[in-house]
Amino acid sequence: MSINLRRRDLFGAGLAAAIPGRAWATALNRGFTHNVASGEPSQTAVLLWTRYVPAGDAAALTAEVAEDAGFTRIVTRSETTAAATTDYCASARAEGLEPGRWYYYRFRTASGETSPTGRTRTLPAGRTGRFNIAVFSCSNLPFGLFNAYAHAAGRQDIDLLVHLGDYIYEYGRGTYPSAAEAMPGRILEPANEIVTPADYHARYATYRRDRDLQALHQRFPMISIWDDHEFANDTWKDGAQNHQSETEGPWETRKAAAKAAYRHWLPMSDEPYKAYEIGDLATLIRLDTRAEGRDKQPELADAFKLADDPAKALAAFRDTVWADPARQMLGAPQEAFLADALTASVKGGTRWQVVAQQILAGETKTPADADASWLGGTPPDYVKQRFQAGVLAGKIGLPFNFDSWGGYPAARTRYLGAAQAAGANLVNLAGDSHNAWAYDLANGGSPAGVEFGVQGVTSPGMESYMRGADPKQVAEALVGANPELKWCETQHRGYMTLSLTPDAAQCDWHFLETIRARSTAIAATHTALVQPGTNRIA
């Protein structure tokens, strides 16, 4: 989610550089420095991860997978190497496993050093009665503690984790959050905005030292998706709002560095998009709405340049730039993959088609009765003007966030049209916004699916901009102004659980009492339910 009021919140507002080597590794000590993790599960395999800093330049590791925590029944071993070229991160693919089973795993060195023991699970095959997915997004380390991770790590009913992006943030210390907002002890490394390979690796190392994030990874497999802040704010395929080539070098160099560090530090495959089969219950489709095929976000500010009549200028912007059918969100190859995956899933008799991607697809406009007093205090004139521009834009049908699917209406139509053509029971998962949302998605006047948007783990949401309004008032106004929006919560942090059965897809939002002290206490929960064949929230 952007903090750039110019674009993102109208409602409120080179690879040639060295991979970090000996010096950084020494600072993190030797041996197994960051616990273990697993991801990319299938029915018979899973990707295992650890980080091991050797005394020399590289070390051979053996990954062992067992049926029991005592490793008396080891079922497979695989070899990998921890080396400076990957910042000593090592991954091993464990294969030959049985579907729908929990396993234990660990890494060992030739000299007998052993990593912590992790637990992971393969995906089920055939008839599947229930599957539970914990969903996360937007975990800005200095804003607060990862209590959402801690809460989920303590549960026994989760089968899979899905992280929808903004796993890290790229900003330097004191930017977002400001020094006054940052929680003591949550210190970013490096201190500067991350740009080089060494920077990105160091930032992941900082995040992955968090004990609650380590515990979550250690206990469950994760399918992870990058959003913009794994690169830079408001990423698109050829640039980002928070990238200045004149001082930070070519965008392609920075993008390559960010991708490499992400894949080094997370158990993540190289495929930019992919489908996972959860028995006959669901197909989980992972998309990339950021770096793969997205064209640049439209700029509402451009509509007002040299405009004598703002309303007329907005209408022209709506009918040309915003509605341009050539602008892409996914890119043609990914659009074709998505349509094929939806069709194959339905034809194969799979009950649910779950699309895990970064951004909201639900139509969301600024309410016409929104009042600048919602901002609270005495905001600068430019903030009030942009707020008022958002209200005016909403009145002629423009969304309040052009960085979401709302900024790409033709691409959105193609996406939802593909789901309708396939006859899908579509559940769209979205992050990025820092708040919680439930939508009935429509296309051409007909139901196309439902959307569940997850609140941030720590990143602040709309409440941080709407300091003069009761969050319940804001939520009611949003729901009243947007027919697709059935519910939202704009105040608390946390995560959500998607529980799938043949008879229903149920989403539970878990809202934490605090992120400023260690606590897993839940302040509130909310539940939404959809039945197959309806594509509507019950």
TrEMBL record:
Every Phospholipase D N-terminal domain range: 34-122
PhoD-like phosphatase metallophosphatase domain segment(s): 134-509
One Pfam family, short name: PhoD_N
Signal sequence interval, chain numbering: none
Alphabetized SUPFAM superfamilies for the sequence: Metallo-dependent phosphatases
Record protein name field: Alkaline phosphatase
Organism: Sphingosinicella microcystinivorans
